[in-house]
Amino acid sequence: MKAPPQDSLGLYVSVPFCRSKCTYCNFASGVYPAGEHARYIARVAEEMTAARAWAARIGAELSRTADSVYLGGGTPTLLAPKLLEQLFAAMRAEFDVEPDAEITVECAPGTLSDDTLAAMAAAGVNRVSLGVQSFIDHEAAVSGRLHSRATALDDMRRLRAAGMANLSVDLIAGLPGQTLASWRESLAVLVDCGVSHASVYMLEVDEDSRLGRELLAHGARYHAGLVPSDDAIVRMYSEAIETLARAGFEQYEISNFSRPGFASRHNLRYWQRRPYLGFGLDASSMLRAVAGSHAGEVMRATTSCDLKTWFDRPQPEETIWLSRARQHEEAWFLGLRMQAGVDAAAVERAFGAKLAGRALQAAARLKRKGLVAVEGRTIRLTDQGRLLSNDVFQEFLDLDALADDTCVRDAHSEPLPREQFIS
Fold this sequence. Notes:
Radius of gyration: 21 Å
CATH topology of the largest domain: TIM Barrel
Largest sheet: 9 strands, mixed
Strand order of the largest sheet: 7-8-6-5-4-3-2-1-9
CATH superfamily of the largest domain: Aldolase class I
CATH architecture of the largest domain: Alpha-Beta Barrel
Shape: globular
Number of strands: 16
């Protein structure tokens, strides 16, 4: 009996080109010669053409229909208008993008030429995410951003005039030199500019960014000595939740807020574990196998994060098959990211009472600590649980140690998509 067709897809395209590398950035992006842009888009187009054959080889059925598209970066708006046209033409040749699909492009303020705006509108772009990070000019500057508040606000005006009124703004709590007063000013500007969506991130400290490495080494470069304390960053995040709630934004995920009806449909795919396909450098995919030895399992794949390697081998270099136990874990720690929480009854129907029972025991422990709330069969993070979310998620890992509940790996580590942290 033929397996039923899969859910429609979300399509993600990584565009790793930047005007400058921000000090806090931990993505696979950088400053490359403009001559690389055309070569890159041509390679992405080849990747799209080969996607269906690749999926067939691994036993995954690809829907031809896509209901969300996301161009992330890097800075996709650095691409020449002709290259944006080529990219969307290649995409539409392989996939039927639904008429009402959400089509998002990330934009660094100050990179929108009139020709770029026209090319985006012609391609059907209907949502733009602006990487503002701070509306305080000196905070943006010391972090490596090349725009001012005036530039960001003018770009919003021009986008609306071009018919792209569904706008999202990113802010980061914890930038060097940031104070509670300056953070409140950024939040006030965000609210006043009338955007429909906001993403608020707390500064990540890790070895994948220059600022993170400097902080870990207790150095002073990149203004590391001016980074606010952890307690101050937590206060800023809490202030954002309160300010945005008063302004009519709903917090639908740990870092994401929207006015009613404007939650990111593409982002929700990641947290709801619906299929998506990634193209380009360091892009992730999640598909379900419908044939072969892995039928019924979930596949996660990631392309190389090194540009030279990716040019030589754009197909995913890392593929992981998730057993039911690992899928069950994901259902919890991705589901708990959302304000809606996890429907324990639905998880039990999907994965069985044995696995769900262990998770419910973990939830009971977390409830006693005040980190999750239990309302009927729905379990969600408390305010404190959001602040300690990594500790909460750890409770739902390795719930089952049976030998047949391991991951089958083609490579070394289990990837979660970097693009899940987009706006």
